[in-house]
Amino acid sequence: MATMEDFHGVKEVWCPGCGNFSILTSLKKALVELQIPPEKLLLVSGIGQASKLPHSLQCNFFNGLHGRALPAAMAAKVVNSELTVIVTHGDGDCYGEGGNHFIHTIRRNVDITCIVHDNKVYGLTKGQASPTSDMGFKTKVQTHGVILNPLNPIALAISLDCSFVARGYAADTDYLTELIKKAMTHKGFSLVDILQPCPSFNKVNTYQWYQERVYHLEEDREFNPNDQIKALQKAGEWGQRIPVGVFYRNDRPTFEEQIPALRDGPLWKQDIRKNLVQEVIKEFY
Amino acid sequence: MGKQVAMTGNIAVANAMRQINPDVCAAYPITPSTEVMQQFASFVADGKVDTELVTVESEHSAMSAGIGAAAAGGRVMTATSANGLALMWEMLYIASGNRLPIAMMVINRALSAPINIHGDHSDEMGARDAGWIQMYSENGQEAYDNIIQAILIGESEGVLLPAMVGMDGFIISHSIENLELLEDKQVRDFLGEFKPKHPLLNINKPITMGPLDLQDYYSEHKRQQAQAMQKAKAAILKVAKDYKAVSGREYGFFEPYKLEDADIGILTLGSSAGTTRFVVDLMREKGIKVGMIKLRVFRPFPIEELQQALSHLKALAVMDRSDSFGAAGGPVFSEVRSALYDLPARPKTVNYIYGLGGRDLGISPIERVVKDLQEIHQTEKIKELVTHLTVRE
Ligand SMILES: Cc1ncc(C[n+]2csc(CCOP(=O)(O)OP(=O)(O)O)c2C)c(N)n1
């Protein structure tokens, strides 16, 4: 039986009130409830405050470069599909520096879960605008406010036919735990974008700001996450009311299922038939 | 005359940029260089400069935007560190290959993996073949002086090359020191206006940049680049002379210290020169004839000048704040040792890799280097060619 204690890692280093604390708790709870033991779990992250989450969660961990978590996670899953592979990183990591990987990992549909701690700001580098910062958001660099349209990760993912698209809210931990569980059990690439207050560097999208706006998609009885157009419409909702929940799901074949070499199981379990390879090499002697 | 101020290396560089007043800056944050652009952004916001500041989504984009702006004929600057510089990699070559004199501050930081945010030279040394002029700074004053000079060196007739100036992350970038800023007007007069010869925006004379260049002409273009780098040597000295007239501070390819009558010497670059100078003084008090040479310009590499400056030494230690794995030692060592090869009599030369990932280089490791050099001088034997200093066994 895996318990919360089994996942206990080093002490967190985030600011008081950071949304990352509840994201960490929700993720641990999801792991316990799904009974994924630490040794069967691989966390992959980039660089940033969000990417420090795996320090505080005991398991296998690969810490790569800023923006480059997804390719490493994808490859790890392909080599060892028996691992549960989860990526935890920030909005800068995933949508900025790593934006290209985000698009193409969705297209590949590898069975991994991509958790984005979306605080709409570069936290680690002390508060510059990120791709998801709202227009007008002022920082020490964007002194007159952001003049670009924010990237809408939910809409982008849906339009790419992403296999599973959800948005959570860091302070709504029970609901977030359920979302993470759904994402983990979904077969295919699952995105969970989490609205994360950052008390130090985002004074606009605060707990109070979200509290007044966030509602569960289930409240809209008409809504159906299998309808791509409706999902896109919902993804466009922002401002007065902000929906959280599962926006879209689309069961399509995973990357792993379509690669002939993986039909006999994960790569590491396959006999690579060294003597056959040697025969081939001999031709070149 | 300029004025004395107390500020960090980063803020000094941001002030240099304010005085330079470039047309375009493109930036993406990374520790420990973030503060440069952050401070500069406030100058932009306060209307102290006319610069177009473009905040982009990656360093690759930052350099790309800079290249576009420089090709259009603008004076362009940026700043970065470590993996930021690494991500600019392919664009560095586009800048130099298209002969665009962009000036970049590199706040030197160790490259991942494992991740480390502190100062070493692995980032800038990794880009040493990218066709950029490279200078290193001992302190904030030098970083300030170097980045101003870099603008003119790069823009010089016959040179037209991008230039990067290094400053050790945290050790210099985040330490407050007493330094002198020139008057704004002095800097602006010194630099004058950049008049690009072949800007893309000249509609009367449309040109193409960077198209396919195969076996027919590629080699000639690369040789031109190599020649431009050689011409940069004269430009560096000319700009240094003019800069001295304005600032009173003297610069060359390197700075010797108590070297003339020395038997043994230490060659270093960056912030470690300060500690090394201190140790040289300590040793001199004991009657040990040791000197130091602080290398400022790494590209173009001043081969003949170094030969002259070092030929009389019996033993020389070259200090590298980055490694070149599998090579004949660190990058500075390989070049210095190769430069000495043609001398009829040359010092026995050894290499120390030190201070990786920001590890402090205190007094005692340098004392040990001096001791090693004395032994080499006496025995005329080298026990260990490349030594990792300041490292646990
Ligand atoms: C190539 C590269 N460029 C820049 C950085 C500096 N850097 C580290 S984290 C970060 C952004 C952090 O924002 P985000 O990913 O949203 O995570 P948060 O810290 O807000 O959780 C940046 C720009 C880096 N590590 N590597």
Offer a concise description of the structure.
The complex is a heterodimer of chains A (285) and B (393). Chain A is α/β, with parallel strands linked by helices.
What low-confidence regions of chain B span 5 or more consecutive residues with pLDDT below 50?
A: none
Mean pLDDT of chain B: 97
Order of helix and strand elements from N to C terminus of chain A: HEEHEHHEEEHEHEHEHEHH
In angstroms, what is the radius of gyration of chain B? Answer: 21 Å
Describe the oligomeric state of these chains in a short phrase: heterodimer
- Main β-sheet description of chain B: 7 strands, mixed
Number of domains of chain A: 1
For the termini of chain B, the CA-CA separation is 51 Å
What is the CATH architecture term of the largest domain in chain B?
3-Layer(aba) Sandwich
Helix and strand layout, with pairings?
The complex is a heterodimer of chains A (285) and B (393).
Chain A: H1 20-33, E1 41-45, E2 60-63, H2 69-79, E3 84-90, H3 91-97, H4 99-108, E4 113-118, E5 121-122, E6 128-129, H5 153-159, E7 164-169, H6 173-185, E8 190-195, H7 207-211, E9 214-216, H8 228-235, E10 242-249, H9 255-258, H10 274-282
Parallel strand pairs in A: 1-2, 1-3, 3-4, 4-8, 7-8, 9-10
Antiparallel strand pairs in A: 5-6, 7-10
Chain B: E1 3-8, H1 9-20, E2 24-27, H2 34-45, E3 52-55, H3 59-71, E4 76-80, H4 82-97, E5 103-108, H5 122-126, E6 133-137, H6 140-155, E7 163-168, E8 176-181, H7 184-191, H8 218-247, E9 254-257, E10 264-268, H9 272-285, E11 290-295, E12 297-299, H10 303-310, E13 315-320, H11 331-340, E14 348-353, H12 363-379, E15 386-388
Helix pairs in contact in B: 1-2, 1-6, 1-7, 3-4, 6-8, 9-12, 10-11
Bound molecules: thiamine diphosphate (TPP).
